[in-house]
Amino acid sequence: MRYLPKGPAERQEMLEAIGAHNIEELFHSIPDEFRLREPLHLPGPLSEAGIIEYFRARAAENARGYTSFLGAGVYQHFRSVVTDALIQRGEFLTSYTPYQAEIAQGTLQSIFEFQTLMCQLTGQEVANASMYDGSTALTEAVLMAERLTSRRNVLVARTLHPEYRQVLATYAKHCDLNVTEVGFTSSGQLDTSTLSPESLAHAAAVVVQSPNYFGVVEDIPALAPIAHAHGALLVTCITEAVSLGIVRPPAEADIVAMEAQSFGVAPSFGGPFVGVIASRDKFVRQMPGRLVGQASDAEGRRGYVLTLATREQHIRREKATSNICTNEALFALAATIHLCLMGKEGLREMAQQNLSKAHFALAELTKIPGVRHCFSGPVFNEFALEFPRSVKIINHALLREKIIGPLPLGVNYPEQTKCGLVAVTETMPRAEIERFAAAIRQILARPV
Amino acid sequence: MAYPSGLRYTQQHEWVKVEGDTGTVGITDYAQQELGDVVYVDLPKIGSTLKAGESLGTVESVKAVSEIYSPVSGEVTALNDLLQGAPEKINQDPQGEAWLVRVKLSHPKEAESLMDGAAYDAYVSAKSKEH
Amino acid sequence: MKESNNPGQSATLPQPVEPGASSERVSRQVSLNEGLIFEESTSGKRGMEFPPLDVPEIDPAKALGAAFVRDAVENFPEVSEIEVIRHFTRLSTWNYAIDLGMYPLGSCTMKYNPRVNEFVARLDGLATEHPSQTTEAAQGCLRIMHDLHKCLLEITGMDSGTLQPAAGAQGEFAGLLMIRAYLESKGDARKKVLIPDSAHGTNPASVVLAGYEVQNIRSNSSGLIDIGHLREYVTSDVAALMLTNPNTLGVFEERIAEIAEVLHEGGALLYMDGANMNALAGVARPGDFGVDVMHLNLHKTFSTPHGGGGPGAGPVMVKKFLEPFLPVPVICERPDGKLAVDHNRPQSIGRVRAFFGNFGVLLRALAYTLAYGPGIRQVTEDAVLNANYLRAKLENDFDLPYSLPSMHEVVFSDARQKKFGVNTMDIAKRLIDYGFHPYTTAFPLIVPGALMIEPTESESKKECDQFIDAMQAIAREAETNPELVRTAPHSTRVGRLDEVGAARKPVLRWKPAPPHENAKS
Questions:
Q1: In chain C, what residues touch A380 (CB-CB under 8 Å)?
Q2: Which of A66, A409, B32, C295: disulfide with A416, CB 3.0–4.6 Å?
């Protein structure tokens, strides 16, 4: 087998050196009754070509080549081939967690750069080496707020991504945390009128996403003093990281959780992605996950090491800030490389293109009779539209045009039936936006 | 290093100096040696209530975290400002300059049941032989 | 006194000898004067350009409100494409990697990461798909997950499972929640989970996250579970035992059937940490020996790349009675053969991660499994062969604290070398000079001064022999020249770094130097 570097003669030599007659002897500590006598029933073995054939066949069974207007936490953006060329270098791809700093300076320095970039983007003081994804980063940010304030309640915007709220609920149940949801106004933003002083005084945090699930930008500077006045922390969440190229960063937040998939990571049917958690220096000891710090060797040479490890599971065990061990290092590296390529101007331009294309699409689509923008608040590259007909039915027809249409909102927001979420990024050609609008117009013109 | 007779010592390697109804608490020289270079110390807030035998905080090296168990009961009245940004003082002078907290003792006689300098010295020597 | 790292200073490096000897591996690491990307940045450069905007440009102040617009990100890097390529390529040369040589890291299973897996993960139609596509537009992705699921069931001997957890630790958490949900459904909520003192740190951390109390149980003198102790500990308060099998010493729990019985009789469940599946796949199945729920580490046993720390994936496999509690959604096959996504799972523990999990990692694990098919047994046999070969060759030089048979990993201690003032960390650092990555040091906790070695099946006899030569050379150096070992490594671009300083005064990001100062921060 091509991945196994031993021939029969070598195996024999090694058995002799061990003093065993055959390989079965080395498995005698497994009780007889449990040792398999027959090979497993598994598909394969396949050659490299066979493997490629299998996956090409699967690739043809999805929506390859379709035009998609889906966002909702996963975004289609331009990625440079340079990113993949670099992360596929064996020294990055096949290297281990950098516990042995002397032979992992490549990984450690790139993580230090990642931590820096995340701080620059979010306006926070310290960021870690990555979390699994946005949903778990948000959950860990809330748990961190609980530890910092010793309060057991948390006020969470309903406009936080539904799946993020589900993940939070799963963890909250076992951490003695009470989650109360806070509604939204006609602008699509957090309804602050329902935040009573009583509820805030007992809250570890107010949790809000911006741009939120409906694509609407929240007024973070106004929310921060409301939370802080009652000793609650402000935790903000960002699912569309490209927004930070043009939207004011949540500098007033105490903890920021983010999904950085938009920076050079393919949608890949939902993962692997890159979770980010960023906060103030004074909270760093309650931060979960790995941290890389600068250090010197005996000759004064600058290097980087994993640091403040006493927060983590391998030292603190049951008292750790989190159980996280493996993170998303390779894709944090991809994000780092992507951001370095884009640079200051590129990030700004990408964000600007998103804003312009989305607003163009919004204008085109709301020209269609019966189609209206659900909310009045400002949007970045995503918006919720109300249609005169079921979104699912519209989408079914759109699929025949090889268009993947708006994500129906009714499942998670029962009061928003006939509403769907549309995302438009810099990758969407104008002609496709126009074709999309024309297709919807035509579908809606047909009799029911 | 000597274990001064004016202090009382616990089996978990903390010391307390009793002066009237005030106790000054720290960790012993043996503790700092075992721990290695101290990088951080986590102390309770002023005003917190301590109970003898219960954890009052932690002291950390790069690779380990040790609980600090209070030798006495009472209320925390002061934290040692000298340690701010200078946790290495705990390695340098753990039984003098680098005390951790001052306590208003609720039971001033509690400390009398702890080991004196000679007893602690013997206790620690026996432990070292175990290694 | 540390010897300096000057070229020509040959005393610190093993002497170059004839081909075939271990020292042929030694080479000095390339340094290259490469700073941080921020230090290479100068205004007006960029590395990526876009097609021109084909719609009218929107004024952000009008669209968002002037107060919500940011200026360009301050101090963000500005570099060209070639500078990015050079920067990260140079950085990569400072890393060790599986592609360069063995990682004998116990419990990590650092095996070859097949390249075809990278190729298929990037295919158009797979890398491009959005998890919220309707099921009719995602049958290919769902089929990949379903096929992997079936393979994992066959390998583990379990009845059902979830692919959602993003890593082993998350799998542990999900598994524990399912145990809780099951017990609560029977009106028998319990409070504690038993954990052997040899366990990986994620185990107790996951237990606490799941709202349980940790009850540590001591291993017996052979490093195995003490069945007598276990009987005492399994009270009506105990929900489960979290067991790694083979354990972190690389030893199989021979009395596993009894262990399972003791637990089941007490109404508790057996959770298996599957980190050591590389000793079992194709040879024995946890489902057969009494395990109720277990997780797998795809980035260990199933070859998905570590990438410097992640991503991973931690599927959880369960027995039938735990199926109702699986995380939502569940992928199921309809009568017509098409795949559907079921969100209607009233007893589910909920979601542990958004979307379906680390699909790209799952895809790579399936590619690995398809490459071997039923021949996966050979992987396990070679892994166990390699570990036992290293054990046989090194047990004259290193202390073996537990004498039971090793499976895919072997644990030595530094007891002999300690006499000369050399400990496991020193030996590990010296191994770097011989061209190898260190083994796992100081774990498991039950072996003071542990050297935990797992070669995996990916190592040739030659690589194993070179490793053996290096370890034997270091054992000799510990006696004749301990200072050399204690001050290692000598061949890397930086020496041992001051971790104490880094922890006392953490510098966790780059900041531009304040104006009018020359010093680099």
A1: 64
A2: A409
What dihedral do alpha carbons A110, A112, A114, A118 form, nearest 10°? -170
- ipTM score: 0.97
pLDDT tens digits, one per residue of A289-320 = 999 999 999 999 999 999 998 888 788 887 87
pLDDT tens profile C424-455: 999 999 999 999 999 999 788 888 999 999 99
Q: Is the pTM of this model over 0.80?
A: yes
DSSP at C497: B
CATH class of residue range A81-339: alpha beta
Q: What is the pLDDT of residue A448?
A: 77
Maximum Cα interatomic distance, chain B, rounded to a whole number of Å: 40
In 3-state terms, what secondary structure has residue C306? coil
Decide if pLDDT at C18 tops 70.
no
The one-letter amino acid at A337: I
Within chain A, all domains assigned CATH 3.90.1150.10 are found at 67-78+347-445
Contacts of C356 (CB under 8 A, 6+ apart): A269, A270, A271, C131, C141, C145, C163, C164, C329, C331
Question: Cβ separation of B40 and A310 shorter than 8 Å?
Answer: yes
The residues, any chain, with a CB within 8 Å of residue A298's CB and separated by 6 or more, are C2, C495, C496, C498
Which residues, given as ranges, of chain A have pLDDT below 50? none
Cβ within 8 Å of residue C344, ≥6 positions away: none
Distance from the Cα of A315 to chain B's closest Cα (Å) equals 6
**Record: contact C46-A345, CB cut-off 8 A:** yes
Q: Indicate the SS3 state at residue C239.
A: strand
Q: Do A315 and B64 touch (CB under 8 A)?
A: yes
Locus of tokens 């390697």: B13
**For residue B129, with 0-12 CB atoms within 10 Å meaning exposed, 13-18 middle and 19 or more buried, which class applies?**
exposed
CA distance B42 to B58: 5
> How far is it, in rounded angstroms, from Cα A108 to Cα A378?
39
Q: C242 Cβ partners below 8 Å, 6+ apart?
A: C172, C176, C193, C194, C195, C196, C199, C203, C207, C271, C272, C273
Model pLDDT, residue C202: 87
Q: Predicted confidence band at C20 (pLDDT cuts at 50, 70, 90)?
A: very low
Q: What is the pLDDT of residues A220-242, one digit of tens each?
A: 999 999 999 999 999 999 999 99
- Compare CB distances from A290 to C110, C309, C355 and report the shortest one's residue: C309
Instruction: Return residue ranges of chain A for CATH 3.40.640.10.
Output: 81-339
Residue B73, both tokens = 């009961």
Superfamily of domain A67-78+347-445: Aspartate Aminotransferase, domain 1 (3.90.1150.10)
Quickly state the pLDDT bin for C28 (edges 50, 70, 90).
low
Query: What does the DSSP 8-state code read for residue C219?
Result: B
**CB neighbourhood size of B98 (10 A):** 22
The helix/strand/coil state of A315 is helix
Q: Which of C74, C99, C140 sits opposite A59 (nearest CB)?
A: C140
Q: Which residue has the tokens 């800030």?
A: A321
Q: In what order do the strands lie in the sheet with B14-19?
A: B8-9, B14-19, B22-27, B101-105, B74-79, B49-50
Q: For residue B118, is pLDDT > 50?
A: yes
Do C276 and C409 touch, CB atoms closer than 8 A?
yes
Residue C77 pLDDT: 97
For an interface test with C, which of B32, B34, B35, B37 has the most C Cβ atoms less than 10 Å from its Cβ?
Answer: B37
B102 DSSP β-pair partners: B24, B78
